[in-house]
Amino acid sequence: MNNIASLIILLIPVIALASGGSPYAGEDLRQIKSLSEREVTSLRRGDGMGFAKLAELNHYPGPRHVLDISDELGLSPSQLAETESLFEEMRLSAVALGKKILTAESALGREFENQSVSPQALKTALLEIGRLRAELRYIHLEVHLRQQQLLSPEQVSKYDVARGYHSAGHEHNQ
Predict the structure, then answer these.
(1) Which conformational region is residue 6 in: left (phi greater than 0), alpha (psi within -120 to 50 degrees), or beta?
(2) Which of 16, 51, 81, 93 has its CA 20 to 30 A from that of 137?
């Protein structure tokens, strides 16, 4: 029964679009209407959410992925321990910020639901949410900077190849 209910919820937007309805159909049932369930889950878990793509695509490996392919990269015990520490530090900071973002989005949503949002309250809330998101992106990008410093240029190149980046042979600075 649970699978059928999930399927129906997933099909609501498709049915609404087919009948000329809104692409937002069904999203009014979400707890935090401004965020998808995937975004909520990612914020709760401290996932990257693409925030570090800029670093990732420019030869700055991320600790999560370095850990995933640590054998391929030939990490030393010291590199492995430092990478695990980097990842855990980043994850804890990201989870804490994710909670703050979820709280701020929920509060803003309540103001809209209660029809009590003012232009000034809206601006204040959006600036705070933007600041929190920028801080979260910083956490994810900055850990890539630190991770790159732990690896040799050869390991960074191996990482790029393993991740499927076409410019893997391109020289990068360290």
Answers:
(1) alpha
(2) 81
Q: Where are the alpha helices (DSSP H) in 21-76?
A: 37-45, 53-56, 63-68, 70-73
20 three-state secondary structure: coil
Q: Are residues 67 and 147 in the same domain?
A: yes
Hey, what are 98's tokens? 């994710």
The CA distance from 76 to 14, in Å, is: 50
39: containing domain: 31-163
Q: pTM of whole model > 0.85?
A: no
pLDDT digits (tens, 9 = 90+) for 6-62: 666 666 666 655 566 788 888 877 889 899 999 999 999 999 999 999 999 999 999
Please indicate, yes or no, if residue 170 is contained in any of the structural domains.
Answer: no
Q: Which amino acid is at 10?
A: L
Whose CA is closest to 72, among 143, 154, 140?
154
Q: Round the average pLDDT of the chain to a whole number and report it.
A: 90
Q: What is the pLDDT of residues 141-167, one digit of tens each?
A: 999 999 999 999 999 999 999 999 976
Closest CA to 129 of 32, 31, 21, 9: 32
